[in-house]
Records
---
Amino acid sequence: MSASTPPTHPDAPTPEGARAPEPEGTPTPTPAPAREAAPTAAPEATAEDAPVGQGAHLGQSLGEGAHASLPTLLVKIFGKDRPGITAGLFDTLAAYSVDVIDIEQVVTRGRIVLCALVTAPPAGMEGDLRATVHSWAESVKLQAEIISGRGDNRPRGLGRSLVTVLGHPLKAESTAAIAARITGTGGNIDRIFRLAKYPVTAVEFAVSGTETEPLRTALATEAHALGVDVAVVAAGLHRRAQRLVVMDVDSTLIQDEVIELFAAHAGCEEEVAAVTTAAMRGELDFEESLHARVALLKGLDVSSVDKVRTEVRLTPGARTLIRTLKRLGYQVGVVSGGFTQVTDDLKERLGLDFAHANTLEIVDGKLTGRVTGEIVDRAGKARLLRRFAAEAGVPLEQTVAIGDGANDLDMLNAAGLGVAFNAKPMVREAAHTAVNVPFLDTVLYLLGITREEVEAADMHLDHD
Ligand SMILES: [Mg+2]
C-alpha cells in the first residue's frame, strides 16, 4: 500500500495571533441612562469638543443611531512582535479610563499590527493620552498612530460571503484580479487571512455588500482564467454547524478507477478504460456502461478482490481530510458507482460512517459478470446523499459532496456545498466550487479549517 498522506508540514506554526478574530458585530448595548440624544456634533469636532462623561461612554458609544457619533480614538501600533505588547498598550490606556470598543491584531512574519478602537478620554485628556502612548511605543521600539474620529466601525453591507482562494502558487496578479472582481460586483473586502500555506496557499476573504450567488458566478469565470481555485460560500452560523461530507470514490477518494484494476487482472483493461472514459464524459448512460464493463470481468477469480484492495491508491491528503473531519465531529461517507468489495474495505480502514456502492456478484469463487442489487448511478448518488443526511440528522444544506465525474453532478448540486475535484470540464462548470489541485485535504480550507488547526489536532492525538 502506498502511503498517500502528504508529509507533515515542515514549518513551525504561525505565531499566536496571526489569525484575526471573527467579527461578531457590535455587542448589545446596555440601556443608556434616560437622556436626550446629544445634539448632533459638528463633523470636525475634536475630542475636546465632546465632553461625554465617563459612564455614559460605553453604553452609548456601542449603540446605534445618535450614539454612533460619540468621539472615539483609533490607536494603531506597528512593529516587531514580542511578548507583552497588547498588555503594555492597554495598561497605558487604562490610565485614561477609556473603554474598548474593538480590537484587531495580526502578526505577519514577526511584525505586529494592533489596532484598538477606544472611547475618547475625558475632556482635556486626549493630548496627554497621545503623548503617553507615543512615549510607551518608543520605549518598546514600536510605531504608534492615533486617529481621532467618531463612532464605531462602519456597519458591514448586507450579504455576507466567504471567498476562499487556493493557489499553487498564489500569484500577485491572481490576487489582484480576484480582489478587483469582488469590488466589481459591489462587494467590499472586510477581512483577509491565510488559511494554509501547504500543500497550497489558501487565503480567505470575508466579503460583504453583495449576494453570494452572483459573486460565485463572477469569480468562477475569473478563477478559471487565472488558473486558481475559488470557492464562494455564504457566511453565517451554518458554516460552523456539524456537517456531513460525502465523497465519490474512483478518482476522488482514490486515484484509481476500481473497475480498471479488476480489468487488469482480467486482461481487458483497454476495453474497459475506453467505456469508463466515455461514461465519465457523460457520453454514455452510466448503468449501461456499468453492465457492459462488469460483463467483461466474467470468470475472474475471487482472489482478484483482495489484490485490487491492496492496489488501491488513496488520493494525497485523503487521510488528512477524513481524520480531521472526524475529529471535528463531521460524519463522512462514500458513494460509488464502483463496488462494495472495495468500498467496504475503505470504510473499515478509514473509519467512515457510510459507504454504498454496487456489488459484484460472485458465485463459486468466480465473478459472474453481473452486479446485484440497486444500481448506484447519477440519481442514486444524490439519493444516497439524502439518505445519509437523514440518518446523520444533518440538514441537506449542511452537507458537502465531493466528486469528479458526470455521475456525481446530481449529488454535487443537491449538497449544501458541491466540490468538483479535479473534474472534467462539464462537471467543473456545473458544480458550486472546483478544486483543481490534486490534494484532497484542500477541501478542508473550503470549510474554513486552517492548516494550523489540522496540525494542532494531529499533535494532540495519535496518528492513524
Ligand atoms: Mg469518480
---
Amino acid sequence: MAETDIVCPLCGGSLEYWKEYLVTKTQSIFKNGTIARTVKTSKPEEVSGMRLEGFQCTKCNWVFNNINEIDKMEKYPHLEEWFESHDDEIKV
Ligand SMILES: [Zn+2]
C-alpha cells in the first residue's frame, strides 16, 4: 500500500470516520418508587465547544481522535488532508 492511501496505517484495513455526540437517557420514576420501563433518549447533541471525532480501522483496533492524539494526526498528514477535503461530505 502507498503511504498516502486512506487506509489503516497499521494493517491496511479500511477506515471509518466517527464523531461522538452527547445523548441523555432518562427513565421516569413513579411516586410509589417503581421505575418506568420506557427509556427516553434525547436527540444527539454535539458536545459544546469541541468536535470529538477521528478515524478508526474496521479490522484492527487502531483508532484516534482529534483531541487526545493530535500528534498522531500530524504524523499522518494525508489523513488530515483527506479530512479537510471531505469535510462537506461527512454526514454524521
Ligand atoms: Zn488496522
